[in-house]
Amino acid sequence: LNMLEYKLKERGKYFVKVGKWYPSSQICHCCGSVKKFDLKDRVYTCDCGYIGDRDHNAAINILTEGLRILQSL
Ligand SMILES: [Zn+2]
């Protein structure tokens, strides 16, 4: 991570760390609702109608949280 941060800074990019306990896999990226999610399930389904790959949903949440942190700096 230190090397990544260094390389990004060198190129004028941002390095933002999302909290270790941020529940990226439990939040629906569409509606924001949070639910307990069994990590053995590969597909995230939500009452709002969203159905998608668990990791893709989590990645979107991490991006959103990173941008939120960046804007608060
Ligand atoms: Zn939802």
UniProtKB/TrEMBL annotation:
Q: Which GO terms describe its molecular function?
A: DNA binding
Which of UniProt's keywords are assigned here? DNA-binding
Keyword DNA-binding appears in the UniProt entry:
yes
Please verify whether the record's keywords include DNA-binding.
yes
Cas12f1-like TNB domain span: 2-62
Under which name does UniProt file this protein? Transposase
